[in-house]
TrEMBL record:
Keywords: Membrane, Transmembrane, Transmembrane helix. The chain crosses the membrane at residues 7-24, 39-57, 78-100, 133-156. The keyword ATP-binding does not apply. The keyword Membrane applies. InterPro entries: DUF4199. This is DUF4199 domain-containing protein.
Length: 162
């Protein structure tokens, strides 16, 4: 447990940041009045997500590996971090869906049928629901976390000196 203390800390920070992002989206009207823009603007979450992942890897390098971390060590740390975030993701999605913005699914279902993205409300309901979002969120967190780590570690790893 001590070996992954840093990853647990940053997974919690990441999850809280994700919830704060959802509050921001709701306050900006992206879950209601401006829902047409949600599909595009929600992707801006990648910016703070990448920043937090990089900060977590740098924290691990500095405070666990005493400033010398190779690519493999960082990749393992990032995978562990991504798994923990993925495990927390159904909980954060539940908080988002039922506490922060319980009207989101109703709004997106209605709008997606209005604009013809789905032909029927039933089709839209099959796509926009807590279960689908929880699964997609967990898989997305895992995949994007690993990809981010794989790229970030090219720059964060300790380079061999001659």
């Amino acid at each position: 447990m001590k070996n992954i203390k840093i990853e647990i800390k940053w997974a919690i920070i990441f999850s809280v940041m994700g919830l704060l992002w959802m509050v921001l989206e709701k306050l900006c009207g992206l879950h209601g009045k401006y829902i047409d823009y949600h599909l595009y603007l929600t992707n801006l979450f990648a910016i703070p997500a990448i920043i937090v992942m990089v900060m977590a890897l740098k924290d691990k390098k500095k405070n666990f590996y005493d400033g010398r971390m190779n690519y493999k060590q960082g990749l393992i740390s990032g995978i562990i971090l991504s798994v923990i975030i993925a495990l927390l993701s159904p909980l954060t999605q539940w908080v988002t869906s039922f506490v922060i913005t319980p009207e989101y699914f109703l709004n997106v279902i209605k709008r997606s049928v209005e604009i013809g993205y789905f032909k029927t409300t039933a089709e839209a309901e099959a796509n926009f629901n807590y279960q689908n979002y929880a699964i997609q969120g967990a898989i997305g967190a895992l995949v994007m976390g690993i990809v981010t780590t794989a790229i970030a570690m090219i720059f964060i790893r300790t380079k061999k000196t001659k």
